[in-house]
Amino acid sequence: xxxxxxxxxxxxxxxxxxxxxxxxxVRRALQIISTVFSSAVEGIVVTDPTGIIRMxxxxxxxxxxxxxxxxxxxxxxxxxxxxxxxEFYENFWKTLINEGKWEGEIWNRRKSGEVYPEWLCCSxxxxxxxxxxxxxAVFNDLSEVHFKDAQIELxxxxxxxxxxxxxxxxxxxxxxxxxxxxxxxxxxxxxVLDINRFKNINDSLGHFIGxxxxxxxxxxxxxxxxxxxxxxxxxxxxxxxxxxxxxxxxEIASRAEKVLSLLNEPVxxxxxxxxxxxxLGIAVFPDDGRTVEILLQKADMAMHKAxxxxxxxxxxxxxxxxxxASSRLMLENALRAGLERGEFRLVYQPKYDLRGDRVSGMEAxxxxxxxxxxxxxxxxxxxxxxxxxxxxxxxxxxxEVCRQVSQWASEGHPPQExxxxxxxxxxxxxxxxxxxxxxxxxxAVDPSRIGIEITESGIMEDLVDSVSVLSGIKDLGMxxxxxxxxxxxxxxxxxxxxxxxxxxxxxxxxxGVLTDRNDAAITRAVIGLGRSLGMSVLAEGVETREQLDFLxxxxxxxxxxxxxxxxxxxxxxxxxxKTGHTPLFPA
Length: 587
Prior knowledge:
The protein is an alpha/beta fold.
């Protein structure tokens, strides 16, 4: 519906104010009024005495983004920014009712979700008996060029995306509350909220949709908390929340549950209905600390622990978490030192080709020989990935494999192939294929003697990038394996898009092929899928002859596991490098 102009406005004003159209003077006056109404650069809203919008002018639509049919019949609360506390609006209505006028700066929200400042003048219209018949609001958009001071305040005090308090404003409020609660002897809770798997929204739907999600989460937090400085988007999808004057831990837990419940309803982003979950960490003053820094640190630890518990969980900080963080820091320092001191070693586990009855290659596996003990991969690999140390560590592994293959070739009996594991972080770093080519050229290693193993979940972190990187690796002449197949996303769509040579059946399925019908069915299905797609299938973790017989009978191409050999140091691999076509497992 287009905005009304000219005679349409004259008729509408006549209807609103009880003026007949028969008088030429009245018609001319209404014509002038309607022209001013439609031409003004200020936004104009006319409401009835209860606040329901009756008319808006074109400038209103231009400023707010709402066309007339979206605004008429609704309450001006559709523009509410959630930046003002309830007392602000109570004072607004008290002044308007008592004095007939209110003027000042107010923060509103456009249809797009953008929060903006405006200068508003709202006046009451009375009839001859003094009763209010209408309210007229006229406003200017203070975010325009000639109101720089408002823009400076907006940028410095509020997060531009969500309208929540900026980091500086939030921390200032937190500092003040800590001092006040300390004097009063009361508890205070600091919450760290992280949206689970938010990166997937940005990667799959785009940052515009992701920004819309964050705006709605911020709006829900602001409405729930009832104050613009009680929450802040610290960065990305991380929010900090203040709960002052908490009487008990039970109350804090109840309020944490209510914060998580704000995400129970789906978020509307574009044409998408997205169901979100979050992880929440809680630190309590004075129990967990008396400074902003310590409380933030401990709430963040608790949030990461909550993530381990599954979706939509919260966790209080405990001394145990502090001990874990201390142990983690010590392990991280030892990991850095171990890299510098050369404490890492590679061992090699053979693979066997069931169709050709011969050893088909090996997989390089990393071991850390720290001064006190040999630290297993499951203890240090996740930490290496989290800290980024996996990148220099991964480069060392690849170069060491190239060096070892080159040495074996010079001594005679090089393995047919050695596979190297890549983490998702390594896969998606820039220049990976170029680095690999340089290392192979340096040691004069044929790329066909190097394989790359990447997990299914690692591929799906960024499918588009995975297609590009793995295609580059494949172009070098290397073999591409999907490790732990079936334990990740189990989305078959990516298989046809990626240059995959081999699917590896995870040990968890192989363990149960003789005792669990589901494991047996999944294993058969993966073998059949690989065959239909022209891929080889290799089962890892094979430990018994009975498992081997099952895999052979169902057409599996190869195996790897302790039945054949445990991982071996380089000097103990000669037997398998020399095996050739000698059958180790005759049918």
